[in-house]
Amino acid sequence: MDQAVVEEGEHVPTLWVRHATPSAGLARRSISEALRVAGADEADCLDAALIASELVGNAVRHAPPLPSGHLSVEWVLTTDTYTIAVTDGGAIHELTVSDASVWDTSGRGLAIVAAVTEDWGVRNDDGRTTVWARGRLSTPVTPPASSPPSALYATG
């Protein structure tokens, strides 16, 4: 995850998912549940779930997996924001928000992410691409007091 996104010393849970379409649903459920447990309202949980789904879906459709065959899904929750990042094996082309027409069957993922988040960005390094998005919570939450496992493996 981008150092500008993560504060020094913050714990970042990582969910390793298969480079496959069903992984979007697994990421969506995991992140939504993490926000719900922290006390986020339903609208914020739905927005975070949408962002997770779009970022994972885009990585599955448009990029190769990491060398392990997986994608890395990370998130950070503060009292008033959440940040979600998905890392893949390196984008094949530059990532931009496209202007999809009403007739296009794809091409809206990053436009949706940009519309529901406060900020988003892309980092490319060492043959990997990380797309991250930060959303603002409508009501303050209590981030987990104890650190969750640093890596969760899912076969989703």
Give me the secondary-structure topology.
Blueprint: E1 14-18, H1 23-38, H2 42-62, E2 70-77, E3 81-88, H3 109-116, E4 119-125, E5 128-136, E6 151-153
Parallel strand pairs: 1-6
Antiparallel strand pairs: 1-2, 2-3, 3-5, 4-5
Helix pairs in contact: 1-2, 2-3
How would you characterize the overall build of this protein?
The protein has one domain: 2-Layer Sandwich (Heat Shock Protein 90). Strand 4 (119-125) and strand 5 (128-136) form a beta hairpin. The model is unreliable at 2-9 and 147-152 (pLDDT under 50). The chain has helices at residues 23-38, 42-62, 109-116; strands at 14-18, 70-77, 81-88, 119-125, 128-136, 151-153. With 156 residues, the protein is an alpha+beta fold. Helix content is 29%, strand content 26%.
